[in-house]
Design brief:
The complex is a heterodimer. By secondary structure, chain A is mainly alpha-helical. Helix content of chain A is 67%, strand content 5%. Chain A is rod-shaped and about 125 Å long. Chain B is elongated. The chains are: A mainly alpha, B alpha/beta.
Chain lengths: 414, 309
């Protein structure tokens, strides 16, 4: 055991003294994640919907049309709509050029028709180039029309009074009749309030979301999803580099020299596998730390993530232990190692979102450590224990170790 | 201390060691001399435990060398390759390689510092080895084999490809190690190295020991005869044919190849007779040297080849 730890310590020291390859492999996922994040992630200002551009053409220019316009001007509506009053020709021109989501046309005589309880028409011209925003305007105007129609019918007598006010000269208007009419209107309003206040049904705005998930998808979320995939891909590259010593020391005579000492082949094999595991985990944790510092990525409970990282690193060390027991030389290891890692990463979801992957890829991906690590990391991010990923990585890692130890021992016994 | 009996090792059809036997005592420095392919490295590899599948026995300090792994603590090996970590310093390398033996840490540090002084690398102890010259690397390579004060030291061509200064330094170390009681076997191509360094010399070829003993013992095997080296434009067969009948007690044909022949003569008066025979057979001679008996002569006589062949 003392010699095993001595070899392990020496390997760590060597890689710390000559860390360039590992540093490059650690930097690549950070750079790639940063670049992809910059290109594809939503910006903070984009996280909130911009106001919907609405053109309003007022042919009526009377009380009811002012009421419609005023509705758009309420604070709450101002956040949703940006209304520009224009004439119809300019409005249609702007619509053609896609400058607005919808145009609302209030017809001439709109107010009088309402007061006379005649049918009138509000026109909503929608921008066909936009998907949802014109529908929002249409829904809003429909609701407004229903409310106006209901109000006019409920207050028909009062409306007639108003109609007379609008039509006749003010000096002949019978003001003495206004008091009782206002009194009736007040009673209707109180009665209506009884229906409306308190509301029996209240509406509460909410969003469907997974436990622990944030309300909005931000750039940080994108980093948090991407980084585990990138990290496990480069964990594979780094552990392969670390464990290439198995081959290179055989070629340059160090293995032969070690075997002239009391060091046993099994101790050397143990040191190599343990070294790949421990150094792989350390490198993974450094990548996590950088990811947190640079991208503010969130990983979930650290304990769970540590277990997942340890399992992934264990699997990787066992796999490359096996791999280096069977390849013939350094060149072969280099030529075969990179394609295997890239295939793992492609099918396992390190290179693209698994949800966007073809079914065949997903089926193959089950055989890769990337897939299990990424799935596990997603669970940990949501605060859940990655039991399935841990079980698969540890059990298959044990099988690989069982294959690697005797094969490496044979290769070590020069 | 070391008894090798009937060690035999084949690589396919090639017999690398053929019933090789040798004894080595405490403090003896044995120079193993032989041409390429003689089996020197095979012998060192078997003794150092890095080559298996052989027959024969090796007893070291009364115990089977290959059955008792603990004996590796008593053996030091200096391989032909400079096998250590270039990215580490000389001191780190010594501590690592020495650490693989059962040497207490404090003792190991003291020993590493001593050896760095001995191989004249103390001033660069903390520098990465990749900055060292070939000679410095060879000296470090040798020092690594000495860290645990072995009772038996095996060196496989420790002076290959280095400058004269480094070579002298390494040979000094080998002599001193022998003088301190360690048994040493070192292989080389260089006759001068064994002449100046070894208390005993073994000449081997085709996997067997052809002769062994001190330098004087070996030289005596070719007698007091002078060696005549003839260079010319002749084939080996016509040359041998020309001297037929002449060879006997007074003239011995040691070796002949196309254009080069070596003969041992009891007296330089034999030389005109040899020349006469060659001229009569129309064999052109372009150069001739007369040498006193030496290890080279012995080697030539035993192997029929020059060491450089």
């Amino acid at each position: 055991m003392r010699r095993l730890l001595l070899v392990l310590g020496n390997d760590v020291r060597r890689h710390l003294r000559s860390p360039l390859a590992i540093l490059i492999y650690m930097a690549i996922p950070m750079v790639m994640t940063g670049l992809i994040g910059i290109i594809f992630a939503p910006r903070a200002e984009e996280a909130q919907l911009p106001p919907i551009q609405v053109l309003l053409v007022d042919h009526d220019k009377a009380l009811a049309s002012k009421l419609v316009l005023g509705t758009f001007d309420v604070d709450q509506m101002k956040k949703m709509f940006r209304v520009t009053v224009t004439d119809e020709a300019d409005g249609r021109d702007k619509m053609k050029r896609g400058r607005a989501s919808a145009m609302v046309v209030i017809p001439e005589g709109f107010t009088l028709d309402l007061l006379d309880a005649k049918t009138t028409t509000l026109t909503v011209v929608k921008n066909p180039a936009e998907q949802f925003l014109p529908d929002v305007v249409e829904e809003f105007v429909t609701t407004l029309a229903v409310m106006l129609s209901g109000a006019v019918q409920a207050f028909a007598a009062e409306v007639r009074g108003v109609r007379a006010m609008l039509e006749g000269p003010l000096d002949t208007f019978p003001w003495e009749t206004l008091g009782p009419e206002l009194g009736k209107a007040q009673k209707k309003m109180v009665a209506a309030r009884a229906y409306l206040d308190p509301m029996l049904i209240r509406l509460k705005a909410d969003e469907t979301r997974a436990a622990g998930a944030r309300t909005r998808f931000t750039r940080t979320d994108l980093f948090s999803i991407m980084l585990p995939g990138m990290a496990v891909m480069f964990l594979l590259f780094i552990v392969q580099t670390l464990m290439r010593d198995i081959i290179s020391e055989r070629e340059d005579g160090k293995l032969r020299r070690m075997m002239t000492t009391p060091l046993r082949p099994l101790e050397l094999v143990g040191a190599r596998l343990l070294g790949g595991w421990v150094m792989g985990l350390a490198v993974l944790l450094v990548m996590v730390a950088f990811g947190t510092l640079i991208f503010r990525a969130h990983w979930g409970p650290f304990g769970y993530f540590l277990l997942l990282g340890a399992a992934a690193s264990f699997w990787t060390a066992a796999f490359f232990g096996c791999f280096h027991a069977f390849v013939r030389n350094r060149n072969q290891a280099g030529a075969l190692g990179a394609p295997i890692i890239l295939a793992f990463s492609l099918f396992g979801g390190s290179m693209m979102n698994p949800e966007a992957m073809p079914k065949a890829f997903l089926a193959v991906g089950v055989a890769t450590p990337n897939r299990w690590f990424i799935d596990g990391a997603a669970l940990v991010r949501d605060g859940r224990f990655p039991a399935a990923s841990l079980a698969v990585l540890v059990l298959s890692g044990l099988v690989l170790t069982a294959l690697a130890v005797p094969a490496l021992r044979r290769r070590t016994s020069v | 201390m070391l008894e090798i009996r009937n060690l035999t090792k084949s690589f396919g059809d090639v017999l690398a060691l053929d019933r090789f036997s040798l004894d080595l005592g405490r403090g003896e420095v044995l120079g193993l001399l032989g041409p390429n392919g003689a089996g020197k490295t095979t012998l060192i590899s078997i003794l150092s435990g890095t080559l298996g599948d052989f027959t024969g026995t090796v007893t070291f300090q009364g115990r089977n060398l290959f059955a008792d792994r603990g004996l590796k603590n008593r053996m030091g090996v200096v391989p032909q390759d400079t096998a250590f970590y270039d990215e580490l310093s000389a001191m780190d390398n010594l501590l690592f390689w020495g650490g693989l033996y059962d040497v207490p840490r404090a003792e190991l540090k003291r020993r590493a510092a001593e050896l760095l002084e001995l191989v004249e690398l103390a001033g660069r102890a903390k520098e990465p080895v990749k900055n060292f010259s070939g000679g410095m690397k060879r000296r470090l390579n040798t020092a690594i084999g000495l860290l645990h004060k072995p009772d038996l030291l095996l060196l496989d061509e420790p002076t290959v490809g280095i400058d004269v200064q480094a070579k002298v330094s390494i040979l000094d170390i080998i002599r001193n190690v022998g003088a301190s009681g360690t048994a040493v076997i070192f292989t080389t191509h260089q006759l001068a190295e064994v002449e100046t360094t070894c208390s005993r010399i073994a000449i081997m070829d085709r996997g067997r020991v052809l002769a062994q003993g001190s330098l004087d013992d070996l030289v005596r095997t070719v007698g007091e005869r002078d060696i005549v080296e003839i260079v010319g434009e002749f084939g080996a067969a016509p040359f041998s044919e020309a001297l037929q009948g002449l060879a006997g007690d007074r003239v011995e044909l040691l070796s002949v190849t196309d254009g080069l022949a070596s003969l041992a003569v009891a007296d330089t008066e034999e030389i005109p007779r040899i020349m006469d025979r060659l001229f009569r057979h129309k064999l052109a001679v372009t150069d001739m040297k007369i040498k006193s008996p030496s290890l080279e002569t012995v080697f030539l006589k035993l192997t029929g080849r020059n060491l450089r062949d």
